[in-house]
């Protein structure tokens, strides 16, 4: 390989892994898999790639990579060696760790001080901190805690042309300069490679109450979820799934209430009164709950969280919450194998029937009519067709300013990555 | 001039330019130009004091003149800037640099001289009594050269006495058992003596709202105050002070200080918020006058709004008056005197009365003296918003505690074809006492 | 180019926004020469007050065509000089764009114009059982457009987060007048770059937000407010660490230091704090009534354990206001004991507060300056107030030196130079303390992404070789 020679001059041998995991890339393996152990090595790689015109595909933890359809030379960048917990200031409620640190290890470290990072997107247990931040997904707990992007206090990143930037800091309030960090969070590695992240931690709630209401249909459950959304309490999360595996083929609404026992008891009463139906208390995770019930509740939550399997063909769609019932009708045409819905943000994730994914473009018009968005998020390796990239961001609005928005995004990418070296991560 | 500048410089220092006053200002809220905000006006005053701005300039003249003087900026100021006092000093500077318009000068000339004031107000009563004012309001077009005359006559017509029975939706033919002019004599348990009170009768109040003065005397007596007649009292001087004629204001104020001293009263009761505010500020007016300052301060100490006196006495409840009342705070009671609760307490003391404080009741009605005549467009916008808020409260009567506001709101209602009465809180209490048979 | 606008341009601007809403009289323009930071005075060439997105777009297009700088301005309450005019520029003010366009109670969203006053939005949404959470201390007057530009915080953002957490969508007028809609509720799934998050906090350098979509929260049911009186600042600092460390989530934790207590108690705003106290701590919990007393009890125990002399508790709105009074009136009270006041706004990791405060007081002694501290202790967001008299040039020089030392100190312990007031012009000189040249260059590049010509609020935020010197230094300003 032509590129391997100069790269090995730049990087120590242990930073270059053998390319033996080619199935990951859908049969088009990279020239090299680079596993840097320092931010300097990441910078060296990216400036090299920019000079040489080689693409860099960031894999974060690298447990899942979509087939590569793009033309041209590329290397893969794995962050798994940048996995240290660099600083944990429990009293300040901040934790800094390498991008390749598994999110589960961050959670474990925080747990020792009864703290946590309240982010629960699908598959979070298997993801790296950097991957999570690059994806910018918060999960349904954002209802009670706010989005991930608001709790990423700082990050060290390397731009596409190899410049190292310390964005943000280690303090919760920081307006020293434009908030470039916000743009990097959720940019899927398209602006810069994230090498370490400082997160805000939270004290674990005394009680994490999990309430379930099963309903015959998803639409009925979503209707209840909307009622919860106008109740005079703010739950930690409010999720609809098309079935709870343990309970047969019934849709369910799963609501979590966090706080002290007294607060949670009162909020449950208030919510039930507002919605007009009782909920079943699956259990309390937290102090005082008995271990067995706590464990089974935890399992149920994980089931709900990972209900839409990440290795399938996943479509995400969103509308304002009040339009959810109509969006559910629309996505039903994808023949969902599994569906979950975050009622707070109006975000629906479905594992589509691979045979019906071609319907996606037809659905788009209906979603636009609802002033929403729809995008294929994950692709199963067997379903890959054609050469177009179905996973690129989709701005469905064809309003007068669509061109302006796109132009801004492109110019921003150029500011970070003038040579276009970074290939956005696709999973 | 130098002395006035020095007084301004001292008072301008606490302003830290924080801008908390902006949203409290009715002119800024409608025009959006910071020169029409309290902070902007203070900045212009500062520029004049610093010698950077000519007091005869359009900028200074226009924006100082455009201030309503409602002082809504004072309670929200974290630094305690005395805006009202500064405005009067700035107006003095402005009028010295450039004389004010004929309307303002004319009005001040009338109010400053009892010999002119009395016939002027009498002719007003004649226009009102003959129904000519009401008629003119209907026939004069709302636009054109006579619009100001129409507004003035509507204000005059708005001062007509109200009929409580009509407001309650009852027939008005019911005979009144008690002639309205009777003094209060409370039957049975005489309330304890709460002190000797002289009532500030005012010019507009005495001329057009004598019924409010009468109700003031009766309700105070019914609550245990000894009300004495105070001879020799004059216009309070507020209009002069607001216009920057501080010498004129001081001459009038001195007459009042002397008159009330001679009457030997414990309290000076004002039922016009504008008069009360001005009289509570006599100490400031005379702060640089060694001979008068102590007497002025003693006089200011004694001034109370009539509702403050009544509220501190309870007031005692009377008979039922079934009315919904939309209350609006006069700026010179709420902002200048910090009195918000007592007028409402007075109203709520009446069985059957339901008080509805209107939306944005803390904002100026646009009355502000003759603002509607000197600034017809802006005055109409501010007044229009107030009338809309009064109407939105859908109460049977509107109520406020200052004659200027009563006329402004009443005129606004009339020009929109509404015949809703605008009353003073003591009028409602007075009606309740009349029905209770406290007077005979 | 300074001086009057070209007559033709002035005519065109007047025809767009109405003759009364273009201000060109130099006497009137004086009113706009400062925002909430009065250390600088620069009069603009003109002020334009548009009333709609369309008018803003047309105004920006005209100014852009004439290559004239644009300084956006909300209520002009900022404390870092972010709305300070440039001598060549025109102010585009949002004061007339003060309408709440819609309140969507079902989705808990509101759409507002930028000139809407922060507190006004909460008043308007309260009947729906909702409120807007970010509460800058100036919330009764600052506007949402300004909040977006500055990414404003406030006492209660300890629990609820700052402005960017609540802004879901923006309509923005860009350089050249192009109108672009960014984000928007319901577009979570688009996978677009977070341009809304990037725009929030851009201090008027990227464009003018003309419509702002924000998230609302359900009203909290109850509030408990505690006032802890401590003999020393150190003990108060430890109490804060102890409260946060115990897992409690207060809505606000504010500290008032000895110098501030003395200033407040000596002023017309006396709040009844003991004047011999070393520090006072205001702690507030809000939420569902049922859990509040227990939370307040726990916080009280934390305070007492750390040596609080007494802990007062408010049980009514009047009592609550009384406990907050010393905090809320602090700036006004200080304004009355010194002619000038420089408010700093550094943030440090919360656990470093005690040592940083001790060092700040040593810096004050070294420079012979009175420094009073009131701040958001829960966030580690300090507001040292340096009291001075600007007519004393020598004292002013000491203030500048002391400020620089305080900033360096805060950065050295892992903090930053501004937590919520923004960089503006005032903290431009400190940007080098927290960003290296590569990062500053990146900030400039990002600015050009939005505004290639650099006409929006030039000279703010990023020190730039080209525009350095365009603004007078504090000491050059006439007083």
Q: What descriptive keywords fit this protein?
A:
heterotrimer, A: 427 residues, alpha+beta, Uridine Diphospho-n-acetylenolpyruvylglucosamine Reductase, domain 3, 12 helices, 24% strand, globular, C: 479 residues, Alpha-Beta Plaits, 16 helices, disordered C terminus
Overall average residue pLDDT of chain A: 87
Q: Say what the CATH topology of the largest domain in chain A is.
A: Uridine Diphospho-n-acetylenolpyruvylglucosamine Reductase, domain 3
Global morphology of chain A: globular
Unreliable spans of chain A are 383-388
The structure class of chain B reads: alpha/beta
Protein described:
The complex is a heterotrimer of chains A (427), B (440) and C (479). Chain A is an alpha+beta fold and 427 residues long. Chain A has helices at residues 4-10, 39-52, 103-111, 129-135, 142-145, 180-184, 218-229, 261-275, 291-305, 324-331, 360-369, 402-416; strands spanning 16-17, 33-34, 55-60, 74-78, 85-89, 94-98, 115-116, 152-159, 164-168, 192-200, 202-203, 207-215, 237-241, 251-259, 280-286, 314-318, 338-342, 347-351, 373-378, 422-423. Chain A has four domains: 4-81 and 416-423, Uridine Diphospho-n-acetylenolpyruvylglucosamine Reductase, domain 3 (2-Layer Sandwich); 85-203, Uridine Diphospho-n-acetylenolpyruvylglucosamine Reductase, domain 3, CATH 3.30.465; 207-242 and 254-286; 314-378, Alpha-Beta Plaits (2-Layer Sandwich), CATH 3.30.70. In chain A, the strands form four sheets. Chain A has an eight-stranded antiparallel sheet with strand order 15-12-14-13-17-18-16-19, sandwiched between helices. Chain A has a five-stranded mixed sheet with strand order 1-2-4-3-20. In chain A, strand 17 (338-342) and strand 18 form a beta hairpin. Residues 383-388 of chain A have low confidence and may be disordered. Chain B has 440 residues and is α/β, with parallel strands linked by helices. Helices cover 52% and strands 7% of the residues of chain B. Chain B contains 24 helices and eight strands. Chain B has helices at residues 2-12, 26-31, 38-49, 58-65, 83-97, 102-112, 114-129, 132-139, 147-157, 164-168, 204-208, 210-222, 238-242, 246-263, 273-280, 282-285, 293-302, 306-312, 331-334, 341-348, 371-374, 376-392, 403-415, 425-436; strands at 195-200, 225-228, 267-270, 303-305, 323-327, 353-357, 397-399, 422-423. In chain B, strand 7 (397-399), helix 23 (403-415) and strand 8 (422-423) form a beta-alpha-beta unit. In chain B, helix 1 (2-12) packs across helix 3 (38-49). The longest helix of chain B has 18 residues, at 246-263. Chain B starts with a helix and ends with a helix. In chain B, 56% of the residues are buried. Chain C has 479 residues and is α+β, with helices and mostly antiparallel strands. Chain C has 16 helices and 18 strands. Chain C has helices spanning 7-17, 26-29, 53-65, 118-125, 144-150, 157-160, 195-199, 233-245, 258-266, 289-305, 317-328, 330-337, 353-366, 393-412, 431-434, 437-450, and strands at 22-23, 46-48, 70-73, 90-93, 100-104, 109-112, 130-131, 167-173, 179-183, 208-215, 217-218, 222-230, 252-257, 279-287, 310-314, 340-343, 370-376, 384-388. In chain C, the strands form four sheets. Chain C has a seven-stranded antiparallel sheet with strand order 15-12-14-13-17-18-16, sandwiched between helices. A five-stranded antiparallel sheet of chain C has the order 5-6-10-8-9. Chain C has a four-stranded mixed sheet with strand order 1-2-4-3. In chain C, a hairpin with a 4-residue loop joins strand 5 (100-104) and strand 6. In chain C, helix 8 crosses helix 10. Chain C is globular and about 70 Å long. Mean pLDDT of chain C is 90; it is low at 466-479. Chains A and C meet through strand 9, helix 6, strand 11, helix 8 and strand 16 of A and strand 9, helix 7, strand 11, helix 8 and helix 10 of C.
